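User: Here's a chain of 162 residues. Predict its fold as tokens.
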Amino acid sequence: MDLLFHLQELKILPQELDFLEVQSCYQEHFEKNKKTLLKMLKSQTVLNFISANYSVLDESSKKYDLIVCNPPYFRLGQGLLSSSDFKNRCRFLLDSDFPRLIKAIDFSLKEDGYAFILLKSLAEHGIDIETEFSQLGASLRFKKLGLIRNTDLYQLTKSIIL
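Assistant: Prediction complete.
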């Protein structure tokens, strides 16, 4: 939702935004923030909350011009699980894995669309994310742009020019 403020400043507010969230308990917070946000925006942007896992995408799924993704940073076996399932879903890729995440972005992104994904370095766990991505065979180009709050920001695109 923070991105909408920046898009408004650039005068490029979208007509509609979908928020995909695995944990439906966030919908209450989403609806509260949505009301506040829509009062502040100078447009009629439609904000949708979709409680689903990206692994359920199929041929009827929407295609997007822009995808912004902040997935759980860690994978199973990388640290101790909490006794809280809620916290574990925020921190660990429990319902899926990195290859399926990239496949879902690849599947959902329109030609010439862009995706931005925050990925924590997993070098301390012996994982080079860029090498792993290159071995997936996705039709996306993958480029590290820099750091946001100590987390790597990557741009993914189907466009020939990055």
